[in-house]
Design a protein that fits this description.
Shape: elongated
CATH superfamily of the largest domain: Vaccinia Virus protein VP39
Order of helices and strands: HHHHHHEHEHEEHEHEE
Strand content: 5-15%
Largest sheet: 7 strands, mixed
Distance between the termini: 39 Å
Number of domains: 2
Strand order of the largest sheet: 3-2-1-4-5-7-6
Number of strands: 7
Radius of gyration: 22 Å
Oligomer: single chain
Length: about 280
């Protein structure tokens, strides 16, 4: 199996390329996580080319050791070889430098509960970068202590220049605004916070304005009210430009509602479970 190292790779793809099981890759990710990228030990995390090089190195050493070496001895040997490898040490230095970067610290500030792990929750959206500059996010569950992390994650992942955050709860919007005011590094970020109900007309949102309309864990609460659910999807579709994207992550089957809004389904690689990815027809 040929593998493109310029894109993010799943554990299954790496396992198939190396001729080992996905369980082997998962075990190595857990045991040697300190040599890999942040969150590498989780099953559903993808890996970059540096992780691929580390896994390849581990696989080669593991094969050389044969079948008669006990597990703990095997792990110790692999760890020793990693420490003596210029390639592995160089990658580890790059990881350390990356962790100290200002951007990573911002990821950690924005989401105290998830920390830098948040960075990897949205990497599946990176292919949209050339097409997305403006975003509207529906839903903002900001508390008095923590902000809504999603808009910042989308902003950084997609390199957008404008995001409008909508929520019908004025308290959540006020909390998000106050959080940004308390953190000087975020004051200049191009975020707008608006109180509005996506089941109704929102004066602040003009038709065909945004490149991406996004929500997560918002629509499922309307599942028992088909009319509200359809009105919400219609709003998401109305505010994006022709050819724009409408994406939701909801733990319920709502495909028919997007189709009823006249949207066309699109498949994105590595999209998480319960992701709904659609485009507004250009014509």
């Amino acid at each position: 199996m040929a593998i493109n190292q310029d894109r993010l790779m799943t554990k299954g793809e790496i396992a198939e390329h190396l001729g080992v099981s996905t369980d082997d890759i998962q075990w190595w990710a857990q045991r040697f996580a300190h040599w890999l990228s942040i969150c590498a030990r989780w099953k559903d995390r993808t890996h970059d080319k540096h992780d691929f090089q580390i896994f390849t190195f581990i696989s080669e050493i593991d094969r050389q050791l044969g079948d008669n070496v006990r597990v703990e001895q095997r792990m110790s040997c692999i760890e020793r070889e990693l420490k003596s490898s210029p390639m592995a040490r160089d990658i580890k230095r790059k990881r350390a430098k990356e962790k100290d970067s200002r951007q990573v610290k911002r990821w950690q500030v924005v989401s105290r509960t998830m920390g830098a792990c948040l960075k990897y929750e949205y990497e599946w959206l990176k292919p949209l970068r050339p097409y997305v500059d403006s975003i509207v996010v529906f839903g903002c569950s900001a508390t008095e202590c923590e902000t809504c992390a999603e808009p910042y994650a989308l902003l950084w992942t997609l390199k957008a220049t404008r995001i409008v955050v909508i929520d019908k709860n004025p308290e959540y919007i006020l909390n998000a605004q106050r959080w940004r005011e308390r953190h000087p590094d975020f004051k200049d970020y191009p975020l707008e916070f608006v109180v509005g109900d996506m089941t109704d007309e929102i004066d602040a949102l003009d038709e065909s304005t945004f490149d991406l309309s996004y929500c997560k864990d918002v629509l499922y609460s309307m599942y028992s009210s088909p009319q509200e659910l359809q009105e919400s999807i219609n709003t998401m579709a109305r505010v994006v430009k022709p050819g724009g994207w409408v994406i939701a992550r909801e733990p319920v089957d709502i495909r028919h509602v997007f189709e009823a809004a006249g949207l066309a389904r699109v498949c994105l690689d590595n999209a998480p479970d319960w992701s709904y990815c659609y485009k507004k027809p250009s014509g």
